[in-house]
Amino acid sequence: MKELEFKKLFSKLSHIKALSIDSKFEEIVQNLVLFVLFNSQEKSLKNDNDIKNSINDYYGINIKTSLIQPAIDKLLFLNKIVRDTSNRNLYLTEVSKMEIGNKNSENSNIEQTVKENWFKEVLNKYNFLEKRDFDELWKLLNIYLSSIFEKKWCPNIKFSKS
Questions:
Q1: CA–CA distance from 162 to each of 40, 61, 77 (Å)?
Q2: Which neighbouring-strand residues pair with 157?
Q3: Among 22, 101, 139, 160, fewest CB within 10 Å belongs to which?
Q4: Which one-letter DSSP state was computed for residue 157?
């Protein structure tokens, strides 16, 4: 991820947070690993360092490797991911792929509905705004929300801008 796109980043991280039922940080890291495996199926990911690099590439987040290995171990134990015995790559199980795909669709629909409702509310108060204004306001709102997300939910990870 060369330039951090806060709108996309916040959306992606919100999806991960939504999967984390009890909001425990460990569960959030597990879901981060699952999402990276889901979105990097063409890559050869074998270990915590490969996962760390993919997290940084895809999300622009630099997370400690020491947080990733316990997540991998737990996901292997829960049969959410498997390790190929021949090439040592980590893969999602078919059930995990389906769950994440369904949750992604559901979360995208929710996000779109929230955005549309927010636009309607703003338009009721500020009817002089145009579509491009809404897009800029939405981008600024997402930058703000991603900052809150980082401070509240992600105290052990650092967002990188390059």
A1: 19, 10, 34
A2: 63
A3: 22
A4: E
The number of distinct structural domains making up the chain is 1
Q: Work out whether the CA dihedral 73, 63, 25, 146 comes out positive or negative.
A: negative
Domain assignment present for residue 1? The answer is no
Query: What tokens does 63 get?
Result: 């997370």
Residue 51 inside a domain? The answer is: yes
**Token pair recorded at residue 13:** 């991280």
Q: What is the pLDDT of residues 4-57, one digit of tens each?
A: 455 555 556 655 555 455 557 788 889 889 999 999 888 999 999 999 999 888
* pTM for this prediction: 0.66
What are the residue ranges of helices labelled H in 40-93?
Answer: 48-59, 65-77
The amino acid at 45: L
| Partner residues linked to 61 by β-bridges | 159
Residue 160 has pLDDT above 90, yes or no: no
| In-domain check, residue 56 | yes
What is the domain extent for residue 100? 6-159
